[in-house]
């Protein structure tokens, strides 16, 4: 990742010649180690103070009128360790360029709310000021209508990223032809070009790279595209025998799809619209993997919801089978779930989070926070899953290539 803050370490490939690392960039990252240690110490003091008040991130959020969707996501993000530390230590202010500091109201309010969730002695606090800021950034959340938690998460992460983006001058769009490069080199170049424009703590944590491949069934020509992703929106697999697993859903998401209708793309070799096959794979694994289970759909102008029980692992989700050939093994542990109970026409959002300070699971239901067993985390209400990377040697993972 482009930043070396808090618990990041720099992993240098065994063969530097194959993956050159810019030396001035390494010097810049190394110089931030001492500051990182100071921030970690400061964050530890804050959490110790919270422990004395028996808070430790176990503070609820009052419902301001159908804001359970917002409260659920905020609790999941508050229990994301590195994002929490980023806010508790006010480290986000070091990423604010002076010309943007006065316009970083959303990030400031998010950081303030996160600090309150970890230091307040109250059982619950009001997110009113934060709600006012997110409504200014995304007017679609104005009012008291029930909203989609996954959509809210995307808007929020996009807003936070824009305010702490370390890139202050956008480079000109590249006109370099990459089609002659190998998939691995093309993916690497595309990722570095993305970081030249989008480089923030939010990107460090949440953004990965998806590889899509199109193959013409007539001439066999294959083209690849590499796109950044904030989350994976995966369809829910349906089995007559039941027993749907998260990997079943991911296999459905990555399976080969035949494009043979109006969606036929233009083959770059045939110069005509041709029948093609399309596949997806993960080129770069993010530190925080967000998986959105697509429970809602619109069919025949009527909204519907799938309440299928999806069995997802709490520990050691191994995603090697979904990786591109050039990627390596990535293993994730679950730490938060945003749940939706009810129908597509109405319902209620809650969150289950593994408290990073205590290592125990808690249920967050607006103002109410209560302990729960890990055996209760899986349910047919699970909607957005938050996984943290625990084991990876991905070449993209810890340094700019």
TrEMBL record:
Subcellular location: Cytoplasm, Perinuclear region
Keywords: Biological rhythms, Cytoplasm, Hydrolase, Metal-binding, Protease, Thiol protease, Ubl conjugation pathway, Zinc
GO MF terms, alphabetically ordered: cysteine-type deubiquitinase activity; metal ion binding
Biological processes annotated in GO: protein deubiquitination; proteolysis; rhythmic process
Cellular component, GO annotation: perinuclear region of cytoplasm
Keyword Hydrolase: yes
Domain spans labelled USP: 59-390
First-tier enzyme category under EC: hydrolase
Listed EC numbers: 3.4.19.12
Catalytic activity: Thiol-dependent hydrolysis of ester, thioester, amide, peptide and isopeptide bonds formed by the C-terminal Gly of ubiquitin (a 76-residue protein attached to proteins as an intracellular targeting signal)
Main location: cytoplasm
InterPro entries linked to this entry: Papain-like_cys_pep_sf, Peptidase_C19_UCH, Ub_carboxyl-term_hydrolase, USP, USP_CS
Recorded family membership: Belongs to the peptidase C19 family. USP2 subfamily.
Protein name as catalogued: Ubiquitin carboxyl-terminal hydrolase
